[in-house]
Amino acid sequence: MNEKMAQTFYRYRDIIPDYEGFLSALEQPLPVTIRANPLKINPGPFQHLMREKGYHLEPVEGIEEAFLLHGVESPGSILEYFLGYYQVQGLTSMLPAKILSPRPGEVILDLCAAPGGKTTHLAQLMGDRGLVVANDFRIERTHVLRSHIARLGILSVLVCCYRGQAFPLRRKFDRILLDPPCSAEGTYRGGLPPTRSENAKVARHLVRVQKELLLQALAVLRPGGTLIYSTCTYAPEENEAVVNEVLSSGQAELLPVQIPIPHSQGLTSWQGEAYHADLVKALRFYPHQVNSWGFFIAHLRKRS
Amino acid sequence: MPTFANEAERKEILDYFSDRFGIPEKVFDGFCFLKGERKIWVFRDHPELKRILNELKVENAGIPLLRTKPSMWKPTTAGLQVFGRHATRNIIDLEGDALQAFLRMETIEGPLPLEPGFVIVRWEGKVLGCGVYGKGSLRPQIPKKRGEPFRGRFYPEDR
Question: Which residues of B touch A129 (CB under 8 A)?
Fold first, then answer.
């Protein structure tokens, strides 16, 4: 185990179940997962086509469009990728859009959208028959988002470049996906660089931004509308503590989630601070439970 | 900032795809065309679209369908990959060395059974994108970035 990484995660030894197993899992290579694009080809024929071309594709139980792609070093250099038949995406990164479960015709906001894996998934789940506003405040980051939209052939996404905390209040959305900037600890596997949150100033800044973004997201969500708050970090300060504020203020309630992917429940306390009891309904994903990025997901409903 | 194409402009776009590629007008039913600077986007009709375009500053809408220069219109690879399967003319299927050359952005020498101008390039019946045919040769028009992974690489034999 990389010493730096062991130090980084040491503070989580009491909250991550089977902590030793967690550390071992970090040493394992991350599998390549892809998401079939039914707007161009349905998962069944896609699987058949890829197998015919000699690729080893393994379905992921519980997520019809997800596959493990074995033996391919550059999944972005395959002609089927060029044709827009699939998107390369971490398995746990597919869950926010799945859980948000948008319906055709709805108007959805992805507040921090780039690089666009979740945006394009949202559009896909609506059969490209809704309207997704994909916002990202850095215009250069939207170039990648736009290239995925074009390659996947998605015709229902509008791209905006507002600062998330100042997203215009005049439009109310049916559902919102908020995957804010985070310390990204969940993406650290063996040999990868140390976490940003080790710098206390950066960590405090991230938490402030996350709280501001969540408040703004709730402000543009219609009453009764649902929202996913997700991060790829284990830090409770960026997860439960952020969600706790809007639960405690009564602005939102947490919804239970049923998902056939192994996970742990959210925390109700951390380092002497107690959180709302409903936070057990939030989901924590660890790489020794599901071989993917570490993730946190909370499914919220705005109170009327 | 995209704005809606008016009826005359819509007709012009439909005529272009019908005349050049034989794509029936009805293929575009349920979609609207939006104009930007030297670009036309195609977007799925939605009852809230007009209002949202008034409420928000939108940078990009759906996918680019055409690049519009005063001298000519050029269909995009993204647009052809969605709507090109309905085309009946100015289509060329590539395989083997010609396919590999196309992906490497190399000119393919003809003559080929195509009218001069922009054409649809396919592989095994699937639309790869746009090429331009003239003076007996076919030049790939795939966006530089999208074609990059295939430069110097052969597919599918040498993956």
Answer: 44
